[in-house]
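TA notes, week 10

Several of you asked for a full example with nothing omitted. So below is the full record: C-alpha cells for the whole chain, then the designed sequence directly under it. When grading your own attempts, check the secondary structure regions first.
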C-alpha cells in the first residue's frame, strides 16, 4: 500500500472510528487497524540479508512489504549502485570508495552476494510491484541524472519512484531532472512548516524522535504524507501508530508486518 493510499485509508478509518464511538459501526476497530502506518523496508529486509542487496529486497517482497527504501551512489563508471556509505568497507570483504571501484565486475558482500546496481533492484521491484523510495547520497552530474531517469523508465516507471535526499538542492533539482516522480525531503531534528516542506514535495521523511503528536497532526492536516525514520522498537511502533503517520521506515520490516497483523488480530 502506498503512503498516499494509506492516507486515504486513514481518513476513512477516522470517520468509522468516530461513527463507532456513537454506536453506528462495528467496523471501527478493523478500520483503525487499516490505518496503521505501512512498513517501509529500510535498505530491504535486513533481518535476513546484508542491507541494500537483492537478497534483502527479495526478503522484503516475499514478506509482503511493497515499499522499499534504498541508497544510491555511483561507481567509477557512473553506474548507479545501491550503497549507503561512500566506501564498501562495512558491507564487503573489499575496501575503498565506491566511486573508485567498478561494480560491473561484481563487488562481493559479506554474505556472498554482490553490491547491487540500481537497475537490478528496480527490476526486482517491478516483479513485486513495489514502490521505491530512492535516496540520492550525492549530487548527481547531468549524465548521472540522465542515467537514473533512463533506468526508472526502463523498469518500474516514474510513478513508482520517490526521489529523496537530505540535500534540499538535490530534492529541488529532481523535479526538473526526472519529472513525474515524487519527491521527499529527509529531515532530522528541528521543525519545518508545511509551507517549507511543500517546496520540496508532499512527502516528508522525518526522524521519528523529532516527531510530536501535534506536529504530526499539523502536517497531516496540511496534506503532507509523513514518514518516520528509523522506527525499530515495538514501544515506538505502539506509541507512534496512534498518530497520523503514513509509514514507518524500519530495519525490521518483516517483524513490523507480523506485529501489525497481530495487533489487529489478522495475523
Amino acid at each position: 500500500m502506498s503512503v498516499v493510499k494509506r492516507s486515504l485509508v486513514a481518513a476513512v478509518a477516522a470517520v468509522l472510528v468516530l461513527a463507532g464511538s456513537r454506536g453506528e459501526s462495528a467496523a471501527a476497530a478493523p478500520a483503525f487497524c487499516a490505518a496503521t502506518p505501512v512498513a517501509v523496508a529500510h535498505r530491504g529486509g535486513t533481518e535476513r540479508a546484508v542491507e541494500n542487496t537483492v537478497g534483502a529486497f527479495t526478503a522484503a517482497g516475499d514478506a509482503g512489504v511493497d515499499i522499499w527504501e534504498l541508497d544510491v551512489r555511483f561507481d567509477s563508471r557512473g553506474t548507479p549502485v545501491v550503497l549507503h556509505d561512500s566506501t564498501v568497507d562495512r558491507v564487503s570483504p573489499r575496501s575503498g570508495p565506491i566511486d573508485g571501484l567498478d561494480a560491473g565486475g561484481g563487488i562481493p558482500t559479506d554474505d556472498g552476494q554482490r553490491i547491487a546496481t540500481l537497475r537490478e533492484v528496480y527490476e526486482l521491484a517491478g516483479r513485486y510491484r513495489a514502490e521505491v523510495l530512492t535516496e540520492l547520497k550525492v549530487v548527481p552530474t547531468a549524465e548521472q541524472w540522465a542515467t537514473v531517469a533512463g533506468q526508472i523508465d526502463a523498469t518500474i516507471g516514474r510513478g513508482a519512484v520517490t526521489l529523496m535526499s537530505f540535500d534540499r538542492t538535490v530534492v529541488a533539482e529532481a523535479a526538473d531532472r526526472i519529472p513525474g516522480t515524487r519527491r521527499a525531503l529527509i529531515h532530522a531534528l528541528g521543525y519545518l512548516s508545511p509551507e517549507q516542506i511543500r517546496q520540496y514535495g508532499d512527502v516528508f521523511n522525518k526522524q521519528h524522535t523529532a516527531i510530536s503528536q501535534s506536529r504530526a497532526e499539523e502536517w497531516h492536516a496540511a496534506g503532507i504524507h509523513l514518514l518516520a525514520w528509523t522506527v525499530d522498537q515495538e514501544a515506538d511502533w505502539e506509541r507512534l501508530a496512534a498518530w497520523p503517520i503514513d509509514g514507518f521506515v524500519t530495519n525490521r520490516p518483516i517483524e513490523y508486518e507480523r506485529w501489525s497483523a497481530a495487533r489487529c488480530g489478522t495475523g
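The longest strand covers residues 67-74. Use that as a sanity check on your answer.
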